[in-house]
Amino acid sequence: MSATVSETQAVVTPSGTAPVGRRSRPRRRTGATIVALVFSVIWIFPVYWMVITSFKPRADVMTPDPQFIPLHPTMVNFVNAVSKTDFLLNLRNSVVVVFTAIVFALLIALFASAALSRFRFKGRRTIMVMILAVQMLPGAALLIPQFLIFNDLGLLNKYIGLILAYVAAVLPFSIWSLRGFFVSIPVEVEEAAMVDGAGTWSILWRILFPLVVPGLISTSIFGFITAWNEYILAFTFMKDTTMYTLPVWLAGFAIPNQPVDYGGQMAASVLFSLPVVVLFLIIQRHLVTGMSAGAVKG
């Protein structure tokens, strides 16, 4: 009876006026839009300031009055960042080390996540908890043990050593992420393939692998960002400056007891960020698809 009365009161309204609930929806949307715009400006402004500062001459950078638009735009900061440093050499080092590490990490994570999601064996839950625990450990806590182990193995100041360190850093997240994509695939798909006579390897490569490609792409971009921005391992394990990666190169613009070239530093930051931005723009469609697919089941 009370439900009928409330429905009647909601329908019977003065002519030309909308119910109170409907009138409040546009206000909520407007408020949410304003809040989203405020947070967007807060997050975007540092990036905007970095970009415009990279195009300013030193006199405009050091002026006490902020200039939100470059009055005398110049490319000299980019020219100096590239020509007067080992940018191209360090860029090559980063590309070789990061891409190799991501390929190996994804390959290992593909088999590990498939086993953890499809097979039932003793200690499976313990392994998953350990992977999650390792992912939660700070990288600085593992730095000294890694350094000692790599020193005993003779892997310091070698690409293979840094690649293995990056694989170890990216692997826990990759396994945990890809496992979610495998779990989201119905088991009936595999059962139907088994009925047709497909073996384990055939099911993995011909059925499961194509279905988790969006997950591989989304996992790879997060792993790439982690390895691309890594500084401590590259600075600690590599003693030869010609083997430094781009994060170490970027840190070289802030030398203690010397004036900082802020324009050059901002130009270097833009150059450092471009590969990640370009890669993200290329695979953003697959990234959204992969994130939504992996969120179906945990």
Summary, kept brief:
It is built from 14 helices and no strands. The chain has about 300 residues and is mainly alpha-helical.
Account of the 3D structure:
The chain is an all-alpha fold. The protein is built from 14 helices and no strands. α5 packs parallel to α8 and α11 runs antiparallel to α14 (262-294). It starts with a helix and ends with a helix.
SS summary, helix count:
14
* Number of domain units: 1
The radius of gyration over CA amounts to 26 Å
As for the CATH topology, it is MetI-like fold
Number of strands: 0
Low-confidence stretches: 1-12, 290-298
Question: For the residues shown, what is the average pLDDT?
Answer: 82
- The H-level CATH homologous superfamily, spelled out, is MetI-like
In sequence order, what are the helices and strands, one letter per element? Answer: HHHHHHHHHHHHHH
**CATH class value:** Mainly Alpha
Oligomer: single chain
Separation of the first and last Cα atoms: 43 Å
Strand content: under 5%
Share in helix: over 70%
CATH architecture field: Orthogonal Bundle
Choose one word for the global shape: globular
Largest sheet: none
The secondary-structure class comes to: mainly alpha
